[in-house]
Amino acid sequence: MSERIHARYWLETGDDPRRAAEVIAGEQSSGTFLTLPNETPELKARSGARIERLDVLEQVPEPSLPGGLRSKVYTRCTLELSWPIENLGPSLTNLMATVAGNLFELRQVSGLRLTGLRLPAAFAAAYPGPAFGVAGTRRLAGVASGPLIGTIIKPSVGLDPQQTAEQVRQLVDGGIDFIKDDELQADGPHCPFDERVRASMRVIHDGAQRHGRQAMMAFNLTGDLDQMRRRHDLVASLGGSCVMVSLNAIGLVGLLELRRHASLPIHAHRCGWGYLSRCPALGWDYAPWQQIWRLAGADHLHVNGLRNKFSESDDSVIAAARAVQQPLFAHAPMAAMPVFSSGQTGLQAPGTFAALGNADLIHAAGGGIFGHPGGIAAGVSAFRQAWDAAMAGVPLAEHARTHAELQAGLGFW
Amino acid sequence: MSERIHARYWLETGDDPRRAAEVIAGEQSSGTFLTLPNETPELKARSGARIERLDVLEQVPEPSLPGGLRSKVYTRCTLELSWPIENLGPSLTNLMATVAGNLFELRQVSGLRLTGLRLPAAFAAAYPGPAFGVAGTRRLAGVASGPLIGTIIKPSVGLDPQQTAEQVRQLVDGGIDFIKDDELQADGPHCPFDERVRASMRVIHDGAQRHGRQAMMAFNLTGDLDQMRRRHDLVASLGGSCVMVSLNAIGLVGLLELRRHASLPIHAHRCGWGYLSRCPALGWDYAPWQQIWRLAGADHLHVNGLRNKFSESDDSVIAAARAVQQPLFAHAPMAAMPVFSSGQTGLQAPGTFAALGNADLIHAAGGGIFGHPGGIAAGVSAFRQAWDAAMAGVPLAEHARTHAELQAGLGFW
Description:
The first copy, chain A, is an alpha/beta fold. Chain A contains 17 helices and 13 strands. Chains A and B meet through α2, α3, α8, α9 and α10 of A and α2, α3, α8, α9 and α10 of B.
């Protein structure tokens, strides 16, 4: 192995930028605050992180984050560091400790955000990536082209298993492709996982017999490892086709072990993403973050949606979705499906398609389907018609002239 | 089960604070953006999160975080929410998704930080807590009272197994209580875990024979689950007494599974803590964060140190250390040992002891030991003498008059 791990950062520092970069590189490899006699030039050349690039962007008078060196001016820059893979081997957990470890706490840092990651091919050999990805998900969902039209059980939490199954029945009858549990609903005493899955799968199989196509439902099995394995096996044994998990809750070992065990696609929820990303001067961009989870085996990754109900900008949403679709390695693309949700309706179909240039995605709407004046089936149809129009390059209003559900949807959305 | 989960937040909002609190409570339980026909009053009363307390602190003209509702004024408050445990059961992973999930991304939020957590006793029944804690660690380290005087192998990364063992030998000969790998050093090709452990344990056993007491070494086994289990078993089979792991790298399932498997204390490193906490308006306080990891089984938890080389204030360090020592439940205290490190010397002993009122802790110094003019053994002695003085309430300078190593240390530190 001789390839290096590359990480890019947005850095703000009250120190000289070159010195700050050297402190960061040192802290995350062979350096210490005191020069030690055994940190020889040979050791440093072999094991030290290297500054590959440092470009000054601008200077500002106030620090973005407190606690750093006091200065009259804070310099913002882009920084690229690299590490020899001999320091850690192709290990995702140790990659985390290396590229996203202590460095955020340094006094030389008044802002630091991990913006990019380039990994040696050894990681592709060491980790499986998604087992299903786009092709496998399409096959199991019976959706050969276009997006999977999806929705989320609502209220998020509070329905019992029978009430959940009743909502699933309506959605399946309405022709939905994809349903997911809310991330708040896993195995609470009021809506136990097993009962919810049994009741829902009965309804899904009934629907499949009538429609000739089985809706995919992502059951949220987030929990301890034994619980997740057991819940996965229940879903599989009942003929289900997807499981869901909250990545920040279970962590990297959780996803790796679920991926090893699973025979179904893994729908990966990013709840908690806000605390990793909402401060622009700190934390993670989505591009490097999703890379790690794709390597570990996520098939579907949430990316919010255009004009969403949250605080994320459209540019950020699209950058995230493109990142999820971008090949990780030329020989091992490990592409996952981006999941668009949050305040979505057919109105976002044209913009989403235009930005990505493809429909290899899941598009989930709640109110946009349930609230349709013609009912759930009309809501699903209207959403699908909006996508048909978007993919054909036809304006929604024009397509709506010959598609009544879309027409009614446009009035409602 | 009828107890509720309580979480406290620091909240900043461009909205009316009461409305913002209701949106947060709704988003994290039964609410949605549209009122749904099946969100009945009964369902809401049973499953909705409840606003227990909302106290306005101040108003500011600019938002701390971008992307939220625009307003002329942003109100800062403390907010306490509670959830019925029936929503999720006593599940740490689902607790994460509930108290630290989507809420940080809401447009009603221009700042949100989780500051406290109070859990029903069901969590104490569902999770093991530390297997060793203070008493077990003291027993294995052979340190009946006072702090474990510790250090970290340096350079962090770059030494090979033999060079590491040579450093361990010097430390053991110097009378050290505790040694840890750096969080950057796990199983890299240049310093494979197995060889490092074998070489180090030979030296540690030699030292134990001479000194009648075995130094505790925390070997960093961070990795995938199989790797961690196998590495743990190697350490145990060679008579080692501690393993170390990076919590944010492996995640909650990783620690839970390691705890289930382990027969040794788990030294928990918090690298990455900066991206969770460095922005005061976002993320996590240490108190609720460490609670989750203690329940999951961490025996030792890093808390930085007084006058550290990083950006954290002394107040924050002491609050973190007190949190680690505070009982989680009256009947199940699950206390862990705080680990003080980063730019530490004997000079920080009096302040650390005064703030905690006890010495149930690990205090690690690097340069403060290695750089002592009398060598490593003198460095360890000086550090220990500083603690003896602190615990006896004697000023360091006074104690130094009759303790040559401390005298020399004071000149050097």
